[in-house]
Design goal:
alpha+beta, Heat Shock Protein 90, 2 domains, 11 helices, 7 strands
């Protein structure tokens, strides 16, 4: 278990233990009678706490996320009422079973109707307090985390926009230079003109398209195609470079330049063997249900002395991880694996436009 997860796990575990100890102590001292034996009263308080965990955690981790947050209000109310009532009955049976063990003359189910109603009421109210307490804590905790995440996203957005504005001078300059060079190249040199045109389209995309939180996947894919075409030019002739799109990519919106760091790393860390055919990059893009999947693999020269991709932690990968955490929390998977001299990077994103807007 990673150190940060380990810390969080023990932190919350300790907080929960402390909370239940406090509740148990409060319950014990509220109903404590000096004239009665001590141990049965401790056992009763323990049973109340044990059974109270059922409505508490069921409300916090099942009912609220699965019904209330999804706006199934009627279902939430019905299930909450059933949970509170059944937990109250279970609590009554558990506590009175302890009484029956120490005082056999006391029945588990009261025979007197007024006493039975009183027992059901008191334990149902206890169960209700546990459920409402859990609901309040859960909603406040989630609200705090949501506000914190929105602030982080806003900060990241402002930082990105500032960096973008600072870097706009160079792209604008290069964009104008590319157009000038394009018209200076002999019309017969179609390869060079095509390369300059692709580079101009890439600069245009960065300058004028990547100004919003989301962008159409078709535009992002076109940018990646141009990037791969330009990068392929600098590699040894005969290198095995492939970019394929499996099946039909239906229209959806994605955070701009999200795929680029993966493709960029593949070209950055590709091997440079004398036999160019051994230098391979294979990039596969596909759509499955509401997931967009990027698979990129490249050969790597283990004798080159360059830090391995899986251990180098480049800024591109670090920034990508950070953006994914902010924009697609809990809705993405990013894996980088090494198998001998082959590196494989896989990104799986559940694209949901609402995630990017913070709703």
């Amino acid at each position: 278990m990673p150190a940060n997860l380990n810390t969080i796990f023990f932190k919350y575990k300790v907080l929960h233990i402390i909370m239940w100890l406090l509740v148990g102590s409060s319950t014990f001292f509220t109903y404590y009678e000096a004239s009665q034996p001590l141990f049965p009263q401790i056992a009763n308080a323990a049973m109340v706490i044990i059974v109270s965990t059922i409505p508490f955690y069921t409300t916090a981790y099942v009912l609220i996320p699965q019904t209330l947050y999804k706006k199934f209000y009627f279902r939430f109310i019905v299930l909450l009422v059933l949970l509170v009532f059944l937990s109250g009955l279970l609590m009554m049976v558990a506590v009175r079973s302890v009484d029956h063990i120490f005082a056999p003359e006391r029945p588990i189910i009261p025979t007197d109707h007024s006493q039975l109603r009183f027992a059901i009421n008191i334990f149902t109210w206890t169960s209700l307090i546990a459920a409402f307490g859990a609901g309040g804590l859960k909603i406040m905790s989630d609200s705090f985390r949501l506000r914190k995440r929105l602030l982080e996203v806003e900060k990241e957005k402002i930082s990105t926009e500032l960096n973008f504005l600072r870097s706009q001078v160079n792209p604008h300059f290069l964009f104008n230079v590319m157009n000038t060079i394009y018209f200076q190249i002999d019309k017969k040199n179609t390869v060079a003109r095509a390369s300059v045109e692709k580079l101009s389209e890439m600069l245009r995309y960065q300058l004028y398209e990547c100004t919003s939180d989301k962008i159409e996947i078709a535009k992002e894919l076109e940018y990646i195609k141009n990037y791969v075409a330009i990068q392929t030019l600098r590699l040894e002739k005969g290198s095995d470079i492939s970019l394929s799109i499996k099946g039909e990519i239906k229209s959806f919106k994605i955070a701009p330049l999200l795929i680029l760091p993966i493709v960029e790393n593949a070209f950055k860390h590709i091997s440079h063997f004398k036999d160019a055919s051994l230098n391979r990059i294979n990039i596969v893009l596909q759509q499955h249900d509401n997931y967009f999947i990027v698979d990129a693999s490249n050969t790597y020269d283990t004798t080159s002395g360059v830090p391995q991709l899986i251990n180098s932690g480049g800024l591109g990968v670090q920034n990508l991880r950070r953006r994914l955490e902010l924009l697609y929390p809990g809705c993405h998977q990013l894996e980088i694996k090494q198998n001998g001299s082959l590196f494989h990077t896989s990104l799986k994103v559940q694209y949901n436009d609402q995630l990017l807007s913070g709703r």
